[in-house]
Amino acid sequence: MRPSSYLGLLVVTAGCALALTPQGFSPEAAAPLTVIYSLSISAVSDGALSQAATAKQPRLATDKALPGRSYAVIMVDMDVPTENPPQTTTLLHWMQTDLTPSPSETILNTALGRTPVFLLENRRNVIAAAPYIGPSPPARVPLSHRYTEILVDMSNASMAQITKLSQAALKRENFDTKAVLESVGITKSQIIAGNFFNVTNPGPAQSGPLPPTPGAPAPGEPAAPPAPGAPANNPPGTAAPSGMPAPAPVPGTPGSPVGAPNPVATVLPPATAPGTGGGSSAAPITSGASHVSTGLVSVMVATAAALWA
């Protein structure tokens, strides 16, 4: 007997038939990446999410079992404003290596039917190369930002490649995903899955000096993480004295044990339909053509139960 988890989920499926990453982003992905946030959200027709709903590090999953042993996720904001609007730049929001695919499926019981997914887990508690920073678009043009995630197969990567990828994460601003992966020796065939969603500042748009970029070191703070193996001053993902996530050693060295960000395998209380009250539910976002037509968005509310079969 093996467990099949039935999760109560608000699922937003966004994207188009041929692209799982937004226009202008490279490299493209060929399969959907499911991103599961722990907070309830109120999804709108354009697939947008709120800043509050995406504040905490999500869980990741794919719709098919992955054959590899180790994967990395890269999350980038494509629409960071500059001093020369409407020109924009990019910001690395998250890079985590050593994600292991689960061999057993978790069932999302949605309005479109039972959907199996396979979770990715940081089983060795490897500290992130770039700890997660939640979306926080400033009140500048553009107010709406696209946040893109790609999943990279690192199963056959050498330690030198992993180290080089991690070192590239030290510079979050103007992060060029394609150039970084090419410099590490990652090929297009290793881009396994992708996803993107929007978070919008309600505005109005302001002028004047830009606010500090999230993730930039405060005055007097070191820009680089400590030497590999050296402990960070703060647990991974928590705020450093500057208010930014604490720096982390180079991935590949297990960090101090940290709990799973959003333990989706936990049995959840039954979800309640919108407008009827009740508890909250987790919120996955899947981007792919398997559930939607070009330009369409589906919003599905699922019920929750846990069964052993």
TrEMBL record:
Keyword Signal in annotation: yes
Comp. bias regions, Low complexity: 230-241
Transmembrane segments: none
GO BP annotations listed: regulation of proteolysis; regulation of Ras protein signal transduction
Stretches the record annotates as Disordered: 202-284
GO molecular function: peptidase inhibitor activity; phospholipid binding
Domain of life per record: Eukaryota
Signal peptide range in chain numbering: 1-19
InterPro entries: PEBP, PEBP-like_sf, PEBP_euk
Comp. bias intervals (Pro residues): 209-229, 244-254
Keyword annotations of the record: Signal
Protein name: Phosphatidylethanolamine-binding protein
Organism expressing this protein natively: Gaeumannomyces tritici (strain R3-111a-1) (Wheat and barley take-all root rot fungus)
